[in-house]
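# nightly structure sweep
# worker-07 picked up a monomer target from the shared queue
# config: single-sequence mode, recycle default, output format = structure tokens
# input follows
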Amino acid sequence: MNGLFRAGVMACLFGLVLTAAQTVRAESWGTLKGRVIWAPAALPAPEKVKVNKDEQHCLSKGDILSDKFVVDPKTKGVKWVMVWLVDAKNPKAAIPIHPALKEPKGKTVALDQPCCVYEPHVFGMRAGQSLIAKNSSTVNHNVNIISTGNNPNQNLLIPAGKEIAVEGWSAAPTVTKVECNIHPWMSAWVRVFNHPYFAVTGADGSFELKNAPAGDFNLVIWQEETGWVKGGKAGTPVSIKADSVTDLGKIELSPSN
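# output follows
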């Protein structure tokens, strides 16, 4: 009987230790940042898109430039690159989420088209959020949502000054493309996640993931023209330090990636 009692006590203690270890991991957080830069010596030349519809409105703010490669000439930073964390061993596994980030900041994410360009051009959403497709311009647009899997596949006409809510978004392994068939140079990209640890690079190529779980993960980096930037689809290993900033420095992007 004493032996059974001791075994029970040891099992309980082991369970407490295991739970404590899991709690420590879940409550250790840090910040991950970096900057995606253009690798070749020669910067890509800005490329004007061919505007052949509603020219008076679409060109009212000047020429429209392609968003395929947007590189800052001063810093060589590449804009519109999406990054996100995945579990190092299993990309489909759930990632611990900081208590402050359990719920998305808002129930909706907006995609506007004020002057014949989608804004933003690349963005992320969390599962359960709704997409508000806006048209703040003075001409009609359509939003052609092209998804794989269970996410929406809809082609919506949005009159000038109107907006439409698109529901039914869930985490997906691939990006969704958005097009305007009325103005065929227009495009945008969205990816849906089941966690908050994703970002899109700014004008200088920088990104930052705050309150990220400490430990070993993979960082996946995607750009619309090159595809997977570093480490391929599986991503590149990163080790996030607890209670500090882990700076990956410069991450080179080449058009031949």
